[in-house]
Amino acid sequence: MWLPAGCAVLAAAVLLGVSAGAADLSAAGIARHLLSLVADGVESPLTERQVALLVELRLPRVVTAALVGALLATAGAAYQGVFRNPLADPYLLGAASGAGLGATLVMVFGPDLAASPRDLVPAAAFAGALLGVAAAYALGSAAGVGGTAGLLLAGVAVSSFLSAAQTLVQQIGVDQLQRIFSWLLGGLGRGGWDDVRLVVPYAVVSLAVLLACGHLLDLLALGDDKAVSLGLRPGAVRLVVIAAASLATAAAVAVSGLIGFVGIVVPHVVRRLVGADYRAILPGGVLFGAAFLIVVDIVARTAVSPAELPIGVVTAFLGAPFFVMVLRATRHRHT
Questions:
Q1: pLDDT tens across 247-265, in order?
Q2: Rounded Cα distance, 170 and 46, in Å
Q3: Where are the extended beta strands (E) located within 205-280?
Q4: 22-35, pLDDT tens digit by residue?
């Protein structure tokens, strides 16, 4: 029953997301407008101005939130499966620090954003995230520390170095600090349909690979020795899953900035609903991750209206207590 439930939750979140806001757009009116597009004899109750608001502002933001939430939640579930660690998240291997450094470099040393293509910051964040993960993977392999422990330690080292480099760049470009921190705290209202077009190709590829690896993650959960005896190559599976999860994370970060805890909260909730089978956890992460971030974005843009909270602040308020609960549960299982 989780699949139709997830689809219903996502549909409700989308309808709520496009109707929430200062402008008068009711969920019933939007539903009737959508029905008028496919059914003869049904008249839309929306004015041209309301349709423009829906299509050009509300809908692209909701679609972006759904894509980013699905990517982060699915990547988080994949990382937890690869590392067999319930606290693993999409920013584990230097993706966040690499993206932050890339975006900061463009904001400080790049051309004036008002006179240049806006794609510079997302592209720099995307490249930085991928380079951070690649550096962590290369360092873990070169250090000769096998398995997931080496990757985790390498990720910590690379993240620390890139974060220090970002701090140095921020000190050089103090005039851009407000813009930098605004990006680092996350947001979804920046680029409209441009953001959707930017992230969709990477989302399709990364999610397709991760969903196809569900059975392989179930075998990895048995341990490397058991997986090898069943004909699996654990090292190759880890490389593919980490690459796809990192691509998903980089794509999400490029359009939204840094939004934490989605990759921890959603997979644990989904695991409670569907069980321990990754063939169900990963698609569940797509549906419930998308719905979760749409709802969080609604809170971010309506809680202190007409002002708007950074979405990363809202996810931190929700995710930090949840993280503590998971940490306590993990400790109790090992004592």
A1: 999 999 988 988 988 998 9
A2: 46
A3: none
A4: 777 777 888 888 78
